[in-house]
Each structure stands twice: as structure tokens, then as C-alpha cells.
């Protein structure tokens, strides 16, 4: 599918890419609001792992310039499939399937990339993040978005180490020019894939966070990887990224220690929505593999 510019439009073409697995209901509730943007989206690409993850006909009926593509389950694989499907986009905005954006989000994103040619990635301000708790109900998320929509976008951009994977836009000319891809050695949930991709891009330009881009991350709990696998990734992935030099020791080491400490302390009084025991067991198996010289992010695919 080729992009078509809207009549009279000479600005950058922006696509939205959404990787999804096992969240059909929330996906179909969230995608329609992308059509309420002050600057219309040029194209939407949804990459699912299974046919049951999305009603492709309903999505096409909702918005003619919607493509539904399929890839083997894994966030990095699915996002790479999206990258390969937007050959004509100038900007690609990756959104999680449970991320809500204010109506000016696309307009402000295009403004950033037009105004600053050296910006290769932008990420927004998350006004509420359900990933840190039990999750945010959809109706509550809409209320937060509506309260932000009433305010005129204000503020500026500041440099950041990496984008936040639930909402990050990339300059596709840079991605294409340097052949950048998400690392498929980070399987399944792809823990820290956003940091790895950000730091690849950071070699070629600036990464900024904008106070003019607002959204709500619902933190929907369905479709996520197991506690055991996530716990393993919490150790294996940052160690792997240090070896790639896409994550510095001063960023990786504190994160490893925070996760270890949180899982060890909270395993005795775990939150109902977090498998602390599974995460701690995953941490311990990763540490054991590290000592034996067998540590690899891909080991999570055989964990049970």
C-alpha cells in the first residue's frame, strides 16, 4: 500500500505502528481514537501474531489506509515487520496497543521532526502509567486524556537516553539509511528493546522527550509474558545490551539491582497483579547462567 498525501499537504508523512498479541478487545477499543487526531494519520499498520488477535476486515472498514500484517510472536519481530511495511513513511510512531494519545499528538510529533532535522526519535510525557500498578481501566484512561485535551499544548523538548517503547516516533530516513532493526535476540516481550533501538538511533542524531506530547499507558495485563521469563530477561537482557554497547553499565547495573531488590523484598507480600515469585526465580536462573557462562536472552524461549 502506497501513501497518498492529503490535498494541499506538503509536510511529513506519519504512520502509526502497533504490535499486538492476545489483546483483541483493547486493540479494537483504542485504534478508533487515532482517527480523532488534529493532524490525520497517513497510515496505520497493525502487526499481530495470530489471526484471532485482530479483525482485519473491521480495521480496514474503520480506516481505508490500515494494513494488518502478521509475524511470529515477539515484540522485536513484530516491530521489524512494521518497519518493513512503511517504506514510504517519513515518521513512524510506535504505540502499544493499550496506549491512548491526546488529539494533538500526531500534529506535535510532526512539528518536532520538521523543526529539528537532527532529531531521530521523540517520545512523549506519560500522564498515567498502568504498568506500574494493576492497570488503568479504559474509561479512566479516556478521562485523563480528555482532561489533557482541554489544555493547549505547552512546553518544549529535552534530551533523553532512550524513548519509551509504548510511545516513540522515529525518523525513517535514518532507520532506512543505516539499516536499523530491533534486535530479535530479545525474544517474546523484548525487555529493553526500546533502549537498544534508541541507542542505535542515538549514534546518528538526538533523542528527545516532549512536554507537548501526552498519553496514557493503560498497562493492560493480558498478553504479557510469564513472571519466570520476565525475571530472566530482567538480568539477561541488560547484560546482553552492555555487551553490544547499546546500554551503558551505569544505566544497566542500577536497573538490574533495582529489579533484583524489588523481587526479593516483595516476594513475601506480592502485589496481586505481579508474579514476584516467578520473577525472582527467573532472576536467580539468570544469575546462575551468568556464573556458568550460559547467559543469553534467548534462553527465555525454553523456560517453563
Automatic annotation (TrEMBL):
One of its GO terms (molecular function) is glycosyltransferase activity. InterPro entries: Glyco_trans_2-like, Glycosyltransf_2, Nucleotide-diphossugar_trans. Transmembrane segments: none annotated. Keywords: Glycosyltransferase, Transferase. Its EC number is 2.4.-.-. Residues 16-123 form the Glycosyltransferase 2-like domain. This is Glycosyltransferase. It comes from Nitratireductor rhodophyticola.
Amino acid at each position: 500500500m502506497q501513501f497518498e498525501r492529503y490535498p494541499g499537504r506538503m509536510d511529513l508523512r506519519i504512520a502509526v505502528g502497533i504490535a499486538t498479541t492476545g489483546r483483541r478487545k483493547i486493540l479494537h477499543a483504542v485504534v478508533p481514537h487515532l482517527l480523532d487526531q488534529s493532524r490525520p494519520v497517513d497510515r496505520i499498520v497493525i502487526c499481530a501474531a495470530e489471526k484471532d488477535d485482530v479483525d482485519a476486515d473491521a480495521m480496514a472498514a474503520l480506516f481505508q489506509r490500515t494494513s494488518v500484517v502478521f509475524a511470529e510472536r515477539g515484540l522485536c519481530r513484530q516491530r521489524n515487520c512494521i518497519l518493513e511495511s512503511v517504506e514510504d513513511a517519513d515518521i513512524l510512531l510506535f504505540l502499544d496497543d493499550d496506549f491512548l494519545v491526546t488529539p494533538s499528538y500526531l500534529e506535535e510529533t510532526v512539528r518536532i521532526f520538521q523543526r529539528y532535522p537532527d532529531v531521530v526519535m521523540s517520545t512523549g510525557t506519560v500522564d498515567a502509567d498502568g504498568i506500574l500498578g494493576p492497570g488503568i481501566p479504559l474509561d479512566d484512561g479516556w478521562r485523563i486524556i480528555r482532561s489533557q485535551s482541554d489544555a493547549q499544548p505547552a512546553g518544549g523538548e529535552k534530551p533523553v537516553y532512550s524513548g519509551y517503547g509504548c510511545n516513540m516516533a522515529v525518523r525513517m530516513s535514518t532507520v532506512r539509511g543505516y539499516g536499523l532493526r530491533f534486535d530479535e535476540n530479545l525474544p517474546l516481550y523484548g525487555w529493553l528493546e526500546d533502549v537498544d533501538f534508541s541507542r542505535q538511533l542515538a549514534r546518528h542524531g538526538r533523542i528527545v522527550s516532549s512536554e507537548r506530547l501526552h498519553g496514557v499507558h493503560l498497562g493492560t495485563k493480558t498478553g504479557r509474558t510469564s513472571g519466570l521469563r520476565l525475571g530472566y530477561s530482567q538480568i539477561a537482557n541488560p547484560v546482553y545490551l552492555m555487551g553490544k554497547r547499546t546500554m551503558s553499565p551505569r544505566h544497566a547495573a542500577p536497573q538490574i539491582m533495582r529489579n533484583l531488590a524489588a523481587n526479593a523484598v516483595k516476594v513475601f507480600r506480592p502485589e496481586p497483579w505481579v508474579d514476584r515469585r516467578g520473577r525472582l526465580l527467573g532472576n536467580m536462573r539468570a544469575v546462575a547462567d551468568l556464573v556458568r557462562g550460559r547467559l543469553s536472552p534467548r534462553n527465555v524461549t525454553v523456560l517453563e
